Amino acid sequence: MDRDRRSGIVLAGLAIILVAVVGRAWRAGVMPPAPSAQPGTARRPGGSARPLASSPAGRAPAVHLKALRVELRAQPGEARRNLFRFRPKPPSLPPAAGAVRGSLPAGTARAAPAGPPPLPPIALKFIGIVEKTDKSERLAVLSDGRGVPISGKEGDIIEGRYRILRIGNESIELAYLDGRGRQTIRLSGS
Questions:
Q1: pLDDT tens, 136-151?
Q2: SS3 of 3, please?
Q3: Which residues contact 57 (CB under 8 A, 6 or more apart)?
Q4: pLDDT average, residue stretch 150-157
């Protein structure tokens, strides 16, 4: 019961403070005056009402119907392109006289040279280094994010696909077994 009485006293005090602040602001002119009930009048910043200039005696403003006629408006020009057709705009000028024979028109790409597709990136994370106390051997700890971490030293084969080429302090160099796709992986720690 003591707690209810205290909260009631606090709420009453806050209500008194709120009423005092609102009353003082209203008397000082900070609060905007109430809107006018008369149609066709506008309030000035000082608070006095005046009739609107465009509506004498509360009438609607004049409308100039001639200005709204369709013939007087600017008409759109002839369309040169269809925005819904996905083709490049045709060149407006003929090709230069000294153009190289066999060159492709602008906007077309040359075919890539035929060859083996690029190797996919090595999907391993370098998460740490393990060293013996005498620093005679360093092991790199790698993770594929799915199972148990994998470890190996320089020259070891990892997962039957990759070879560890070099183990540095902050990175490791791996390559595919055939020597292609050499990649440096930085130490990520997780």
A1: 889 999 998 888 899 9
A2: helix
A3: 40, 51
A4: 92
Other residues' Cβ atoms within 10 Å of the Cβ of residue 126: 22
Lookup result for tokens 């006629």 = 69
Beta partners for 157?
A: 163
In tens, the pLDDT along 20-67 reads: 998 888 887 655 555 555 555 555 555 555 555 545 566 888 888 877
Residues 6+ apart with CB under 8 A from 155: 163, 164
Give me 165's structure tokens. 């080429």
For residues 126, 127, 133, 137, the Cα torsion angle rounded to the nearest 10 degrees is: -20
Nearest to 153 by CA among 136, 134, 177, 176: 136
Q: What is the DSSP letter of 176?
A: E
In the chain, the N- to C-terminal Cα span, in Å, equals 56
Residues 165 and 174 sit within 8 Å (Cβ to Cβ): yes
Would you state the pLDDT for residue 92? 74
**What Rg value do the Cα atoms of the chain yield, rounded?**
41
DSSP summary character for residue 19: H
pLDDT digits (tens, 9 = 90+) for 73-131: 666 666 666 677 676 766 776 666 555 555 566 666 666 677 778 888 888 999 999 99
The set of residues, in sequence order, having a beta carbon less than 8 Å from that of 46 and lying 6+ positions away, is none
